Structure formats: structure tokens, C-alpha cells
Amino acid sequence: MKKVAILGGCGAVGRVATKTILSLGNFEITVADKETALFERTFEGYTNLIKFKEFDANDSNSIRKAIEDSDVVLNTVGPFYKYGPRILKEVIEMNKNYVDICDDFDATK
User: Fold this and answer.
1) Are 87 and 61 a contacting pair, CB within 8 Å?
2) Smallest Cα–Cα separation from 2: which of 20, 25, 28?
3) In what order do the strands lie in the sheet with 27-33?
């Protein structure tokens, strides 16, 4: 079973991504976000199926802790011009598979 870390999993897009991946049934999911209470409200009834890690996209150590146990990282944290390059740098350094929803070419480049 693949382990996926969903960064920003409690946000508008992250919520949909998390529930979609959950419905596939083939992943161990960790949602990384900044508020535990938001996670509990957002995924009420699913918290036994989804792990949670408190996460700060401004902190390299926090990013690394959020993704350390994952096989795949899904980034839904915006704004992407600000957080995309920072998160991608840590993911590359940790040799993780990476997917994001960024449509901003300049931020990814």
C-alpha cells in the first residue's frame, strides 16, 4: 500500500483530493495542515482512516517531517508562487515522488 502525504489537505482543493484518494482504497493517507481542529471537522467520520500531521509550509523542518514517511507527496498548498518552490525543493532533496495542482509555470520552473 502506497503512503501519500497530502500537504494542505484541509483546504478547498486538498479536501477534494483527500476524499478522492480515500475512495480509491489503495493508499495510506496522511493529511498535513496547520490546524488539528480543522482536520477533525473536515474529516469527521474518517479520522480513523486518515493520519494527521501538523504542518507549516514556511518551515523546512516541518515540510520534511510531514513527508518523511510518504512514498508520494501531493501538494495543494497555495499560493503556489510562494510555497510551491519551497516545498518542491524539500521533496527533491528527500527523493520523494511528487504531484501538485499548480498551474503556474513560472513558480514550478
Assistant:
1) no
2) 28
3) 50-54, 27-33, 2-7, 72-75, 97-100
Assign domain 2-108 to its CATH superfamily: NAD(P)-binding Rossmann-like Domain (3.40.50.720)
Beta pairing partners, 99: 74
Residue ranges for the chain with pLDDT beneath 70: 107-109
Give pTM, 2 decimals.
Answer: 0.93
User: pLDDT tens for residues 77-96?
Assistant: 989 889 998 999 999 999 99
